[in-house]
Structure formats: C-alpha cells, structure tokens
Amino acid sequence: MAKDFSTMEDSNRSSNPSIHDISSPTRRTLLQGGLGAAISQLLAPLAGASALAGCASMGGGPLLGFKSVPVSTADTITVPEGYVAQVIAPWGEPIGLAGMSRAFKDDASNSADEQQAQMGMHHDGIHFYPLDGAQRGLLVMNHEYTDDGLLFPDGMQNWSAEKVRKSQAAHGVSVIEVARKGAQWELVRPSSLARRITAATPMAVSGPAAGHAMMRTSADPAGQRVLGTLNNCGSGITPWGTYLTCEENFINYFSGGDKPSPHEARWGLRKGGAGYRWHEHDARFDATREPNEPNRFGWVVEIDPMDPTSTPVKRTALGRSVHEGATVAVTKDGRAVIYMGEDARFEYIYKFVSRDRIQSGGARANATLLDHGTLYVAKFNADGSGQWLPLTHGQGPLTAANGFADPGEVLIKSRQASDLLGATKMDRPEWIDVDKNGWVYCTLTNNSNRGVGKNAGLDAANPRANNSMGNIIRWKEEGDFSALTMKWNHFVLAGDPANERAEARGNVKGDLFACPDGLWTDARGVLWIQTDMSTSAMGKGDLARMGNNMMLAADPATGEIRRFLTGPSGCEITGATATPDGRTMFINIQHPGESPSERSDPANPGKYSTWPDKKPGGRPRSATVVIRKLDGGVIGS
Ligand code: FEO
Ligand code: CA
Ligand code: CA
Ligand code: CA
C-alpha cells in the first residue's frame, strides 16, 4: 500500500520547538532557590534571555553578526564563514542504554528490539537540558514519523508484526546524554538518563478527559492508560524542567471504515490511514474495532527527562488537536500560559492558561499544574484586534444540545468546539515563540487551498489565495499573557517580492525563504526561522529559486532576515536549542532525501541524498547537527 503522499507533504513534515531558553536558569532557580526568587525569574517572559543578556560574554555587537549563506541545492549542510557544523545522533545510533549497544546497520536490518535502543527516525523538536553548564547535558528530541521504505532492507514488502513493532519503536522521543570534548560533542554512553519513549510506551492520561467514555477501549476500560505517543512534531519546555512533546498527525496511523461518523470525519479518519499499515498487525490502530483509540492521541504529553522511570502524562486540559508545538510563557502572577498551533489547513491557534501558579520544587511540585485551567482559541479580526474564545463547557454554543456532554467532550472535540465558536481558520499554524518584548510569533507555513473552490476565502490574518509561501503572524496580548484580547500584525509575508505570481510575492527584508515552520527565540532575542518548503504547494520555479530548506535569523526590531544555514537535499530543518552560554546550538535535519513524488525505494535508498554518511547507495538519515563558532563565540553574533 502506498503512503498517501498528498497527506505526507502537508502533514508529516514539520519542524519544531520553540521556547525561549527559560528552562535552564529558571529551572535552577526553582530547584535551588525560594519561590520568591523563582517568581522573579518567571515574571519576564524571557527569564533566560534576561539573565543571559546581562552577561558580558554575550557581547554587545549587532544582533545578527554573521555573513549570510547563499541558497544551495547541494546535499550538504552549509553554515556561514567562521562556523562549523558537526553531525551527531543520526537515526539508528545506539543511545547508550546499558547492555544495548547494537550498532546501526547500513542496510537497515536492525531488529525492532535494537531500534528500541537506538535513535528513532525523523528527528523534530529538541531541547538541551544542562547537566554541567554548557559542557554536558541531555538532548531530548522528538521522532515525528517513519519512512518505512528506508526503515527495512526490503521496505514495506513482506509486511509483518515485527515490522510494525520496529516502525513503532522508531517513533516517539529520545533522551540522550551529550558532552563536549574539545571542539566536538559526543554521546555519553552508557548513560543512566538515556531513554527511548515510543509508540508503545505506557502513558498516563490526566485532566478533564481522563476516564471519559470516549477515551475507553477494550484494553483500557478505565480510559486512563494509553500505550505510546506518535507523530511527535514540535515540542516545548516548562519552567519546572519538563518536556512537552506534541502529537501531530495522529489520525494517519488509524484505519477507519467506509462510513466515518461526523466526529471521525472532522478529524480525517479514513480507510487505510496514510499507509503506515500498523492496523494490519496491531488491532488498536484499526478504528473499526477500537473506535475510541484515535481519541487517545492528539494530546500534549509531559515528560520528566531527569527521571527515566517517570511515566509520561497526556495532558488533556490542553486540548486535543493536530498539535505542532507547545510554548510556555508565564504570567506576572506565575501562571503558565501555553501557546499551541494546529498544523492543518483551516485549523486553529490555541492557548491554555493554568488555574494555579507554578510552584517551586520542579516537576514533582507541578505534577498537576497542567490539569486545571482554561483553553482558548484565537479569533483574528480585520481591524488588527483579536480575541481568545474560551472552550468552556456550558458557555455559548458548547452545550449538550450541540454535542458536548461535558468538559471532557469539549476537549476531545476541540475542532468542533472551535468551529462553533467562530474561531479564525488559519493557514497551517506551526511553531510559536515569544520575543523579549512580549510579541508572540506563529509561523503559518502555507495553505494551497486558501480561497480555492469551496474552501474558506481570504481574511485579514490569512490574506493570500493559494498561499504557497506562508507567513509569520504575531500578536501582543493586551495586558498579561492570560489576556482575552490582543493586537496582531504580520511580521513577514514569505516569498520572493519579484515572484511572477502575484499571490506568491512576499515582503521579506533580506534573504528569500518560504514556508516557515520551526521558530525559536534565542537568549539574545534572535528569532530563528526554519523552513519546510512545500513541494506540493510551490511551483518548480519557486522551489528552484529557494533551493534546499534552510534556517534564517531575524531581528525582531528591524525585521531583517538573514540566511544562516542550508540543509542537505530533500530535508526540512526543524528544532533548535542551545547551551546556556549560547555558544553551541543544536538543530535537527529531518527526512534528507525525501522526494516530493516518490516513495523511498529500498533498492535505491540514496537516490536523492546520502546525507550524512555519504556512502554510495547508502540510506539518508535524519540527524542532529551541532553548530559552533570557530572563535568560540555566541551563535549568530
Ligand atoms: Fe510536523 Fe507541522 O509539522
Ligand atoms: Ca516534519
Ligand atoms: Ca513542523
Ligand atoms: Ca511543516
């Protein structure tokens, strides 16, 4: 069965994390200091940025101090003069579980059990958790999906339960320990903190939808324990030291019946799913047999990376959606606000505001913080104002008469609730991050269906028909991050201002790019933009002028955008994080060698890319890239 490429294009390629680097300094404060000290750190949306901006070592030069790189079609990474890029932790690399160190085999003949102890496929959101300042730490990262043409020596032929197990084991999250050795970074192996979380790892369910009738299955009649997380795309971090991994295109893994219910249809359930074929050997992915299993995915999952024995928790209070990422800001009184984009055409932007304040004491002290609060969906008005509409059961149209029996059902059916509330249907919201002035940025990657046929037409926030280039919208809350109103504008419309097609012309000040996806604000306030240029949405001429996917740096104050890195052929760039001193940056390269129109061919896996191994005929492998400056300076300075 062929993968559904039309779906893969828009729904499985992605990018990642954003979160200002508040984690490290704030986390230390929370662990070591009193609550007063902690809250003073939390008051600033960019506590890490503030702390680091005060360091003389961060320098006082221009925000963007590097010389931009040209577009590239080479099967390699390019970084500016004076920078070096090193590859670590590619798919299949053993992560350092004691006694489980079977090396990656070039023909992909590793077993499911071996894959369970190796890096997963298709790296995405990532975050660095310091263990020893800027010298040693944990990298926690998502593995969004698998290309099963590459995952096995014979691809998807002879499909079997063992192949399903291996595919599931290549999904999820990796926790690896890394350390700097001179000019290089390497994995610390074995590591007592190394961990793989996969599509089969037991997870708890918490919040208003836990135990709900729509969450119960034959294997879990209580509706409180789910096996696994999947399609983990963007990610987030909390000030209390945990990692938020976001379940994106979960519905692709489920096979439905001939006549989906209205609820199933609204979430895109279809016969055969997107061709992962798990349902053929794992009945819970056959929604005709387990119709509630899809309701148990599409959540934000909280993981404590410092405790490898901890149980990941699906936080239903944050709503169910095709989650791209989850970015935490903190209100002046210490409550958590989580911004989330739903990456699908004509879907929504959400924020969750916690009921309670963040407590000192790390993950344990905040174990239920994300279980209580209010979920809102964004409405962008034509006059530049905006509202946050609460998804509160019993308010407005969210009543039993309209199909919402209780608060849990509102969260499980957040799309239907947002439809009724009249929220703004967006052009595929991907990553979100907050700058040091409190502007919240969201990448809207593209929407080739905008204004086409019977689809929704243009609106002020989504102003281009057949939007192949994407844009970055931003808003500022009127008051605190918990505000119910905001003011918004577009930071940039991506695309070449000289494009021959009017709707593809952008207003980029600086280097050309399209289809922004990953977004991350570093400690100095640089807005890093990563692209996932859509081969289906863009014309050949557009793709030729843009080259391979790239990462750019933007100055939020001036709007200048400068190209910093280009990736290998067929990849997207996704996920960004840095050591607390800003001198080592980690990004992910996802799906090098992916073709816009063909499935990967196990007989010729290196047809479009052999990055990073560069072995003739070898398999391309997603991997983490470590970026340093030759003079040891801060990245981007
Ligand atoms: Fe997985 Fe929206 O990218
Ligand atoms: Ca992706
Ligand atoms: Ca993405
Ligand atoms: Ca994407």
User: Between the first and last Cα atoms, what is the distance in angstroms?
Assistant: 49 Å
Query: Any idea what the shape is?
Result: globular
Helix content: 10-25%
**Count of alpha/pi helices:** 12
Bound ligands, named by name, code or SMILES: MU-OXO-diiron, calcium ion
Counted up, domains total 1
Rounded mean pLDDT score: 91
- The CATH homologous superfamily is called TolB, C-terminal domain
Q: What's the architecture, going by CATH?
A: 6 Propeller
Segments where pLDDT lies below 50 for 5+ residues? 1-57
The CATH topology label is: Neuraminidase
% residues in beta strands: 25-35%
- The strand line-up of the biggest sheet is 13-14-16-17-18-23-22-21-20
Structural class: alpha+beta
Walk me through this protein's architecture.
The protein is globular. Helix 2 (23-32) runs antiparallel to helix 3 (35-43). The longest helix has 10 residues, at 23-32. It has one domain (25-248, 298-629): Neuraminidase (6 Propeller). The model is unreliable at 1-57 (pLDDT under 50). A hairpin with a 5-residue loop joins strand 25 (516-521) and strand 26. The strands form six sheets. Strands 13-14-16-17-18-23-22-21-20 form a nine-stranded antiparallel beta sheet, with no helix packed on it. A six-stranded mixed beta sheet has the order 8-7-12-11-10-9, with no helix packed on it. Strands 2, 3, 4, 5 and 6 form a five-stranded antiparallel beta sheet that branches. The chain is an alpha+beta fold. Helices cover 13% and strands 28% of the residues. One calcium ion is lined by residues 13-15, 430, 445, 517, 532.
